[in-house]
Amino acid sequence: MNIQENYSLKNLNTFGIDVSAASYVEVSSTQELIEVLKLPSANNHMILGGGSNILFTKNFDGLMIKNSIRAIDVVSENDSEVVVKVGAGEVWHDFVLHCIDQGWGGIENMSLIPGVVGAAPIQNIGAYGVEQKDLFVELEALRKSDQEVLTLNAEDCQFGYRDSLFKNEGKGEYVILNVTYRLNKNNTDINTSYGAIKDVLNSKGIEQPSIKDVSDAVIEIRQSKLPDPAKIGNGGSFFKNPVVPTSVVENIKKEYPEIPTYPIDDQQTKVPAGWLIEKAGFKGQRFGEVGVHERQALVLVNYGNGKGQEIFDLSEKILITVNQQFGIKLEREVNII
Predict the structure, then answer these.
(1) I need a labelling partner for 311 at 20 to 30 A (CA). Which of 40, 213, 271, 302 fits?
(2) E-strand spans in 166-298?
(3) What is the pTM of this model?
């Protein structure tokens, strides 16, 4: 293993925050990971995936372990479906494109989501009407306390909206090694009903879309709304869309009848955080080297030389203002270090 000291993390986080780790190592197998975790320096460590859902507000004074465990293996298949085990270090979008190339459907709505496969269950990522839990079979994770490899099913993982075991009582206790998904092979259950997918397909004259058509539409929509981290530092959606009592929404409608809403049940309604932030006056606003993206108020950006603390302070200002104006407490989706 190659442990490097005082290692820059600027190119390993999509915000492009210029911080460093006291030491850094990359692992590509379960055995390498176990060996690294036995090191004295691992007493203070952090597991890094794609760096797309993390905001560094300071240098990390421990051992940064980059999870680069990669593989895409077919576990089983028949005429209608395929079960695939994917290494945690695989780039999520690359995995999606691989599935599309193989004719494996179900995952195409989650095209272009940043990050690696190992982060997908942690966040229970989702987009355009599909969540990873809808396809999830199981995962293997290393329990740090005794370095035992466990197999966890969906119930074990406690999936919720952008939530899981790994963000709550299991936070920091496991390292995800691989994730297994069940996909279909006959272009069945194609979902074009959410968001602007159908509009994009109609504009292209596509009446019977393939999984690639849906993926292409999602990519086009995301690229039109979200900044490319390679061009401007960001971590995607910074806040969760809040789910609030319907009575709160009804009260807001008295002043803002145009508020978009997505009923969950009779008592709860989801509200777009981006709409709340825009109405609070933050969309497109720049504060020195950081700001709120001009096309998507959910996205906080680093214009080049911003500091993580500046982005955090901006997010705090947004939280306070939205709560004062609408009585809704937003929750950060990005992990703060």
Answers:
(1) 271
(2) 174-184, 233-237, 243-245, 262-263, 268-270, 286-287, 290-292
(3) 0.83
